[in-house]
Amino acid sequence: MNIKQAKEDIKNAVLAYLTKDQFGNYVIPVERQRPVFLMGAPGIGKTAIMEQIAQELQIGLVSYSMTHHTRQSALGLPFIIKKNYGGVEYSVSEYTMSEIIASIYDLMEETGLQEGILFLDEINCVSETLAPSMLQFLQYKTFGRHCVPGGWIVVTAGNPPEYNNSVREFDIVTWDRLKRIDVEPDYDVWKEYACIRGTHPAVTTYLDVNKDDFYKIETTVDGKSFVTARGWSDLSDMIRLYEQKELPVTEQLVIQYLQNKKIAKSFAVYFDLFKKYRSDYQIDKILAGKAGKEIVKRAKAAKFDERLSLLGLLMDGLVSVIREVSAQEGTVLELVNCLKLMRADFAVEKDFVEVVKRRAEAEQKAVLIGKKAGNLSTDREYVLNLTLAALDEHLALIVEKAPASGEAAFKLLKSDFDKRKKALAKLTTQAEANLANVFAFCEEAFEEGSQELLIFVTELTINSYSAHFISKYGCEAYFRHNKEMLFTERKKDILAEIDALMK
């Protein structure tokens, strides 16, 4: 299965394991909850889906790479205690609590979350001294004498032996106690995730044409060469930063992440072309509806690869604005809740500065707890940070204006809030106009029902930000072209069925 299917499988397993009966007991007792074992090639996204599951279920996440652990850190350190057996005193070895188990209790204490996922990566690559203890853990969920707390689901991961020389084969007894899931690389699934995380359009447009370059591990006379999903994601992040700093993206940089010389060279050449397209097509002008006839003319005459790059650039520009709309919407909603709470406090307290400070501290605590729990998404963290910045401005207003009453303090903050709502409305209108302008450009540059228009509509559909924006605010051109696309696909299906019947 692909990583998306694996995510849903694991999420469903976690939900099942956390189900309780009417007496508050887990329906499947903890000792019978099979650990999940995720088998997949390195860099495929195993850790990423654990984070997503924790975020979606709002439970804790504790992650460890077992290759970094010794027997002592995983099992605990021995110490001697005195015990009396049959009237005779003996020296007995005990063990301190495992670092891994202790970290779960620490998270529970700091966040208040009593349920979560313990994710242990690369468990089939542990050291020789740790291997017996690891097998014991998989069977009994204990390190030494300390068991994983109830409500914490064990999810593990490992690499197939062909990718790692350190892999240790499990026996049948161990496998029979695990819920095994095998995962294969899938570019189309990864692209959905890539769109959400804002992967550089040069990466996605290159891979749209060169899907075989997405994941490749080869053994040559010069040793192993490889390209993984993790490599593409990390390269994308670095390209974004290099562009911000106006640093050159060279083949030497690319090969540091894509450790296959042929693919690295191919992408580096493509990236130079991509930069030229971005300059030539003046994406900002297209978004603003001010694209000149020469730009339209060039798009009409361009080859398919160039058109695909252009669509990637247009999507990147659109989604950047739409993501900001989404973040500002989240901030406005967060501020509404803050204002309600502060208004109630203003009515009974005279220290208005302290009220705002306390609210800001609560928001800051939410960020810290979310980070500690491992269930705070990047988008949510951004919203909370924007909210904190707004509360800092509210605090400055209170200090500057020194309102005489709680109602006056609330009106002061409400006035600032109204300005933010107006700014959000303006940004939303801009995003709507950008979307309409891009459709107008595409309709002029590409033929009706063309592959390019179908690709553009598909990209808008699979991107969660643009899909949500369109469902909320609408877009006449999108719905029109989407209807045409569905009709075309249905027509193809009918013709295929007719052909099959005629044979």
Characterization of the model:
The protein is α/β, with parallel strands linked by helices. The protein folds into three domains: about 5-185, 3-Layer(aba) Sandwich (Rossmann fold), CATH 3.40.50.300; about 185-280, no CATH class; about 320-425, no CATH class. It has 20 helices and eleven strands. The strands form four sheets. The chain has a five-stranded parallel beta sheet with strand order 2-5-8-1-9, sandwiched between helices. The chain has a two-stranded antiparallel sheet with strand order 3-4. Helix 18 packs across helix 20. The chain is globular. The two termini are about 35 Å apart.
Poorly predicted parts: none
What fraction of the residues are assigned to beta strands by DSSP? 5-15%
Roughly how much helix do the residues carry, as a percent range?
55-70%
Major beta-sheet overview: 5 strands, parallel
Overall average pLDDT: 86
Domains counted in the coordinates: how many? 3
Q: What is the CA-based Rg, rounded?
A: 28 Å
Number of helices, where a helix is a run of at least 4 consecutive DSSP H or I residues: 20
CATH topology of the largest domain: Rossmann fold
Amino-to-carboxy terminus distance: 33 Å
CATH architecture call of the largest domain: 3-Layer(aba) Sandwich
Strand order within the widest beta sheet: 2-5-8-1-9
